[in-house]
Design goal:
Length: 757
């Protein structure tokens, strides 16, 4: 199949590139609006108790779950005439919209409610409302209201907040961050590629393919939004992966193309051979990454599902660009691929010899000597590195998980500033930590009052609000809120003094659930949402782990014919991720380097991020594992074929590992550096867990290409010796029939087709 693809693209290179250019323009047009159709939630399941409770509240109690806040501030005070006039104008503007309901304000609500809507310093007041619609609609409405109502006039400042405003601000921030990340990653990648290839022309080709993959990614994301919910947070990750993988795959193919030219092949034949060999690595690398990302679809949260859908599509786009667009460009460029070599003048400037050309001699490389030295001290190298990785991962033992709120945004965002003010100045109005209990189709007010009284006796519950009354420590302290009950049922609001994401907050939720209720209850609020999210993730986690391990095992078995090497790869990948997870807890949970990176530590991690990082990093690590082991196996088989017995099996294994690393080390290290640049550019984001993802994956990729592939993997392969290649006889026979190989089939020298230039 690969040879047919190569022959097609080399026979009609201009047509292929013209079609690619037309597709790039079309993709750019289609993908331009992708972010506007993506959503900012997806951290809970549709059938979770907290989700069903929220839906009942939204359907039956307008204003029960306010998601939009206007913070009005004035140094003159809340009763100043200018402040009062401005507040009434805002209320009138909100009441004039059909998609806004449940409007309450410090200036228009009854005294019992108004007291909670004024700040402790008397200079700020709130207008709260509920915007109707799904996540996309409410963030669009929030954007419109922000433009119309916020700003400063006559000494009165109006800022927006609430969930709807956070959704809107996140969408705006992610879109901006994407442009910044690409502006950082593309030029840096080009510089590194020039250092790797020397030639400006050769270095430009992977960047060209990467840019094609980016526009294809945006178009794919836009199409996926037509059929299912896609998280806005997938935008940075998938476009970064599109660029990183496209550069990665192009690096393999361009490097092999240049090698074949050095061996004397003409451009067409060299292109076919490059696609036939390095292209095979690209195909199966894409399969492994796609399988790892597809595992995310087993989770019921659309935040993770969207990464599965978009991620698989992005991998396909990057691989297709490398296999179709790149070969066509290589044929037309031909020997000019080595043009504009910047290394030669630099070497002459420092009085050094020109860069050596011709076939590489593995035994003369630094990679070979380093690998032999590592294998000479295999036991101490293994012990030290494993101990180091486990030590780096130890902070993960103290990980805490919590639902994201406005603090994922930078302090400069208005929705974040309003959130901070709510937590500091409006203790009774900050519903972020409060819980809500829905009693569907229940109407006994006396029973509701008794239930509220018992709930208020739970430790660290300052008050419980209900239609029957406001209860504190079991006593009715104020009249009830009639709007908290109707012919569909009733709901209660439980205030709390605890962090809902802390162990104490979780324990309090269990205590509240244990209070005997007069009817079936549905809990929602921060603590309940967090508990439901963790339960949904925990239920699917074993299946996801099994699937990703099985996919890894099958692909590596098909490549190597061994059952030992796939198990080793799983262990090594897990070790490298353990260190990254520990670093993420130490940095993002505990707050080290928060000022340098630019985020607000909240004492916990978003629970979906370790799972997402695990699947993505596992797939990316397999990229280099396949590339490395295929070359080692090729050398092992060649050496074994020259032996009639097993007396040199240990030496053959050691030499095969050293030569395999020597042949691939420079390439996979360069590929890892390029991927680290592209993914690391996400650290420039202003959304904290996008920064976490970027930094975590960057550390994982770099550790995998250096500590794991260059040190620990060779040491373990030396310790296992010939057992590396063992498989039970039935599986060995199966591999002989269906196994995959990187060994190229003989390719005749293909004459240049007339008129291809």
């Amino acid at each position: 199949m690969l040879i047919r693809i190569a022959r097609l693209t080399t026979r009609y290179p201009r047509i292929v590139l013209a079609v690619a250019f037309a597709l790039a323009v079309l993709f750019g047009i289609v993908g331009a609006t992708a972010s506007a159709h993506m959503k900012s939630g997806g951290f809970t399941t549709d059938d979770a108790e907290s989700t069903r409770a929220a839906e009942l509240l939204a359907d039956n109690f307008k204003g029960a779950t306010p998601n939009f806040v206007l913070l009005i501030s004035s140094e003159a005070g809340l009763r100043d005439p200018a402040t009062v006039v401005r507040a009434h104008e805002l209320v009138d503007a909100l009441e004039g919209r059909d998609d806004v309901s449940g409007i309450q304000s410090f200036w228009t609500s009854p005294p019992t409610m108004a007291a909670a809507l004024g700040s402790t310093d008397g200079n700020s007041g709130l207008i709260i409302a509920e915007l109707d619609g799904d996540e996309t609609q409410i963030q669009q409405t929030a954007g419109e209201l922000t433009e119309q109502l916020t700003g400063t006039s006559d000494g009165v400042t109006v800022r927006q907040g609430g969930v709807a405003a956070v959704y809107h601000d996140v969408t705006e921030q992610i879109t901006h961050d994407l442009a910044v990340a690409e502006a950082v990653a593309v030029p840096l990648s080009l510089i590194v590629l020039i250092l790797v290839f020397g030639s400006v022309v050769a270095a430009s080709l992977p960047v060209m393919v990467g840019l094609f993959a980016i526009v294809a990614t945006l178009a794919i994301l836009r199409m996926v939004t037509l059929f299912t919910d896609v998280s806005i947070y997938a935008l940075n990750m998938t476009t970064a992966m599109g660029l990183a993988l496209a550069i990665d795959y192009s690096l393999f193919i361009v490097s092999r193309f240049r090698e074949e030219l050095d061996e004397g092949l003409e451009p067409v034949a060299a292109t076919i051979r490059a696609v036939q060999t390095a292209g095979r690595t690209v195909v199966y690398s894409a399969v492994t990454v796609a399988l790892a990302l597809a595992v995310l679809s087993v989770f019921d949260l659309y935040f993770l599902k969207s990464f599965a859908y978009a991620g698989v599509a992005v991998v396909i786009a990057a691989a297709a660009a490398a296999l179709f667009v790149l070969p066509a460009a290589l044929v037309l460029i031909g020997h000019r691929v080595n043009a504009l070599d910047l290394r030669a003048p630099v070497r002459r400037m420092f009085g050094r010899e020109p860069h050596p050309t011709g076939p590489m001699v593995p035994e003369k490389t630094l990679w070979y000597r380093n690998t032999k030295q590592v294998m000479r001290f295999a036991v101490p190298v293994t012990v030290v590195i494993v101990a180091l990785l486990l030590a780096l991962g130890s902070p993960f033992l103290g990980v805490k998980f919590g639902y994201p709120d406005d603090r994922v945004m930078p302090a400069s965002a208005n929705s974040r500033q309003v959130g901070d003010t709510l937590r500091e100045e409006f203790p009774r109005a900050d519903s972020g930590a409060s819980g809500t209990i829905v009693l569907d189709d229940f109407h006994d007010q006396n029973a509701i009052g008794e239930y509220a009284a018992q709930l208020s006796k739970v430790d660290d519950v300052p008050a419980v609000l209900s239609s029957a009354g406001v209860y504190v420590s079991g006593r009715r302290m104020a009249p009830g809120q009639p709007e908290m009950a109707n012919d569909t049922g009733a709901y209660l609001t439980v205030a709390t003094d605890l962090d809902p994401f802390s162990p104490e907050g979780s324990a309090q939720l269990d205590q509240l659930r244990a209070v005997p209720a007069p009817a079936p209850t549905l809990f929602t609020g921060a603590a309940a949402v967090n508990a439901d999210s963790l339960a949904a993730l925990g239920a699917k986690l074993p299946l996801a782990g099994l699937l990703i391990a099985l996919a890894t095992f099958v692909v590596l078995f098909l490549f190597t014919g061994s059952v030992v090497l796939p198990l080793k790869a799983i262990v090594l990948n897990t070790l490298s991720l353990t260190a990254a997870f520990g670093a993420m807890v130490w940095i993002f949970q505990e707050g080290h380097f928060s000022d340098l990176i630019g985020f607000t530590p909240v004492g916990y991690l978003v629970p979906t991020m370790p799972i997402l990082m695990f699947c993505v990093a596992f797939g990316l690590s397999m990229d280099y594992e396949v590339f490395l082991l295929s070359r080692i196996r090729e050398e092992w088989l060649a050496r074994r074929a020259r032996r009639t017995g097993n007396e040199y099996a240990v030496e053959d294994n050691t030499e095969a590992v050293a030569i395999g690393v020597a042949r691939t080390g420079r390439i996979f290290t360069a590929a890892a550096l390029l991927m680290a640049i592209v993914i690391g550019a996400m650290v420039t984001s202003k959304v904290s867990f996008i920064q976490l993802m970027g930094l975590g994956l960057t550390l994982t990729v770099l550790a995998d290409a250096t500590i794991i592939r260059a040190l620990l993997a060779p040491a373990l392969m030396r310790l296992m010796g010939p057992a590396n290649w063992w498989a039970p006889k039935p599986l060995a026979r199966l591999h002989a029939k269906i196994g995959l190989s990187e060994e190229p089939e003989p390719t005749a020298r293909v004459p240049e087709p007339a008129g291809h230039r």
